[in-house]
Design brief:
The chain is an alpha/beta fold. The protein is 37% helix and 16% strand. The radius of gyration is 19 Å and the shape is globular. The model is unreliable at 5-15 (pLDDT under 50).
Length: 269
């Protein structure tokens, strides 16, 4: 029996080791990355990009119950520009792309609980569909309309950053085309929303660590550029050292995963 018990214990430890609980806590800016809030359609091959409204609500509540303060991009920029310390346990909630379900599901939850979020908007698909997705992986879904986006901004709950004009793989484009995707989206979004777009996220994370691409993002005038690389970035941020990394929240993640993201910089190996 002792041998069997030992085998069971070792097996349990080995199984649990794929979670990052055993890693030491890591400092750095905590930036959560979501995409779609809702239920994936039948046959979806992109289920990791969908977080149910119930899970999202539980995760936001976990943040607030555990003393985290959710920040808008403008609040992050104010701290960066002034050199002020960020509030203790600061976190940014970000959404990539600008889906209609961010309006129908995420925004009401944030508003109800008293939290804030930020959306990286693909300007060219506002009010349309996610045309960059292959429909063989998942049917296209609606993007938020301009009136919906403006309503969320006016509530003070959501702010926006740029996610290019058309969601391309920037590193595969000609330098001039990549530069246009980043600069034109900033110009169009600022005209549409009447405020500075200080933040940019690389679609697919592509180009975030390619110097020639990143140079064009900074030349476009963004203060912050965000990767899709898993992790936390030291704060105060050394802008020259590289973009700000994020913590990708998958559809299967629970509050235990969220806690590991926030403390260890990853939930699972």
């Amino acid at each position: 029996m002792p041998v069997i018990a030992a085998v069971i214990v070792l097996s349990a430890l080995a199984a649990s080791a794929r979670w990052a609980w055993w890693r030491p806590a890591r400092p750095g800016l905590k930036v959560l990355c979501y995409h779609k809030i809702g239920t994936p359609p039948p046959g979806s091959k992109l289920k990791d990009l969908w977080v149910s409204p119930e899970k999202f609500r539980a995760q936001v509540k976990y943040l607030l119950d555990n003393g985290y303060r959710t920040l808008l991009f403008s609040e992050l920029k104010k701290a960066y520009d002034s050199g002020a310390k960020l509030p203790e346990k600061s976190v940014l909630i970000t959404f990539d792309d600008g889906y209609e379900n961010n309006y129908t599901h995420a925004w009401p939850i944030l508003k109800e609980l008293g939290a804030k979020g930020n959306i990286f908007v693909v300007y060219g698909t506002i009010g349309k569909a996610n045309l960059w997705h292959n429909p063989a992986s998942e049917p296209w879904v609606n993007m938020a309309t301009l009136p919906q986006l403006r309503e969320m901004q006016e509530s003070g709950v959501m702010e926006y950053g740029s996610h290019t004009m058309s969601h391309p793989h920037l590193a595969s484009l000609k330098p001039g085309d990549a530069a246009w995707e980043m600069a034109e989206s900033k110009r169009q979004l600022e005209a549409a929303f009447g405020r500075e777009m200080c933040a940019f996220a690389y679609p697919y994370g592509d180009g975030a660590y390619v110097p020639a691409v990143r140079e064009k993002a900074l030349e476009a005038g963004y203060t912050f550029d965000f990767s899709f690389l898993q992790g936390k970035t030291p704060w105060p941020w050394d802008r020259k050292a590289g973009p700000i990394d994020r913590l990708f929240i998958r559809g299967g993640d629970n509050n235990w995963d969220l806690a590991l993201h926030l403390t260890r910089g990853a939930s699972r190996l």
